[in-house]
Specification:
This protein is mainly beta and 303 residues long. The protein has one domain (2-179, 242-295): Distorted Sandwich (Beta-galactosidase, Chain A, domain 5), CATH 2.70.98. The chain is 8% helix and 44% strand. It has helices at residues 2-14, 129-132, 253-259, and strands at residues 20-24, 30-35, 39-44, 49-55, 82-83, 108-115, 118-126, 139-147, 151-159, 165-167, 169-171, 174-176, 184-186, 192-195, 201-204, 209-210, 215-220, 225-230, 235-242, 246-251, 271-278, 284-286, 291-302. Strand 6 and strand 7 (118-126) form a beta hairpin. It is globular and about 50 Å long. The termini are far apart. It binds 6-O-phosphono-beta-D-tagatofuranose. 6-O-phosphono-beta-D-tagatofuranose binds at residues 75, 88, 98-99, 172, 196, 216, 248, 250, 273, 275.
Length: 303
């Protein structure tokens, strides 16, 4: 009953009739549902997790596994998980949750605002005794998502402490595609990458990124935009960024897909992660009292 009261209370504060409301989503988790002339979209309050962006007249752009778990404190498999303040496993603590704590914490809904023909949702996560169990920093993270003709995501971290801090971050975006074996990522030609499927060996990208096996690459010093070409769905997805110096490309392929309980054995064929990140040797340093903002902008056109 409390959950429904919470949703009712949230709607009293944030609903924009006809444009945005809070609903009970999968697993009873609260989500903001946006429907504008330009696009429809969804963001769950747990993890501030975008799970849908569907520009008007187009098919869904994001992938969410049919086998995702929908439980408080468990990462949703798909959409745009926020990885922070570390990426992958925590170097100094193998028991720490993969990809940090941000994607499994409840974020506070701050505002839902009309922004022209778009809707902007703002959520925050502040350090507390639970975050300090894993990471001692005092911080306030603000996440703004603008659902419109483009999907714009802005992740700002303010260092409230007296010391500089270093962290990794990722908008770990899962894209829905028609057939992984026909898709390709353009814009990374000649860029160095760390191959996580080959002992983190450093290699050089030759031409477009084609996926023909498990792929898990951290591209270093990447350009401000790459394109995901999907000839099966007839679309080109632009992935532009600001203040993101690394790009991660991931597809689990057959074996890893079968090993993930929250991922369908065949789903590897319809998805690819092209992630806007600052990871590994290009993690972010933020001085005391300073802030850093990473942005991703997803756009779509016919290919
Ligand atoms: O971004 C790629 C990656 O780091 C892969 O190594 C794989 O672990 C993927 O993230 C998914 O991670 P998760 O913790 O969500 O299962």
């Amino acid at each position: 009953m409390k959950a429904m009261a919470t949703i009712a209370e949230l709607n009293r504060r944030f609903e924009i009739p006809g444009l945005a409301r809070i609903d009970e989503g999968n697993g009873g988790l609260p989500k903001v549902v946006v429907t504008t002339a330009e696009a429809a979209g969804e963001i769950y309050l747990p993890g501030a997790h975008v799970t849908s962006w569907k520009p008007s007249g187009r098919e869904e752009v994001l992938f969410v596994s049919a086998k995702s778990r929908w439980e408080d404190g468990v990462a949703i498999r798909g959409g745009v998980p926020i990885c922070f303040p570390w990426f992958g496993s925590k170097q100094d603590d193998p028991k720490a949750p993969a990809h940090g704590f941000a994607r499994t914490r409840a974020w506070d809904l701050q505002s839902v605002e009309k922004d022209g023909d778009s809707v902007r949702v703002t959520m925050i996560l502040e350090s507390d005794e639970k975050t300090k169990k894993w990471w001692p920093a005092d911080f306030r993270s603000e996440y703004r998502v603008i659902f419109g003709r483009e999907l714009r995501m802005e992740l700002t971290m303010k260092n409230l402490g007296a010391e500089a801090v270093r962290f990794e971050e990722a908008l770990h975006t899962y894209f829905r595609i028609g057939d992984i074996e026909k898709a390709r990522v353009q814009g990374l030609d000649g860029i160095k990458y760390t191959d996580k499927t080959d002992a983190r060996c450093e290699k050089m990208q030759q031409g477009d990124v084609l996926i023909t096996a498990e792929t898990d690459r951290e591209y270093l010093d990447t350009p401000h935009a790459v394109e995901l070409i999907d000839p099966v769905m007839g679309r080109k997805i632009g992935i532009a960024n600001q203040n993101s110096r690394t790009t991660v490309v991931w597809n689990p392929w057959v074996k890893k897909a079968a090993a993930m309980s929250d991922f369908g054995d065949e789903e590897w064929r319809q998805m690819i992660c092209v992630e806007t990140t600052n990871v590994s040797q290009l993690a972010v340093d933020v001085g005391a009292g300073c802030k850093h903002q990473m942005r991703a902008k997803i756009s779509i056109e016919n290919s």
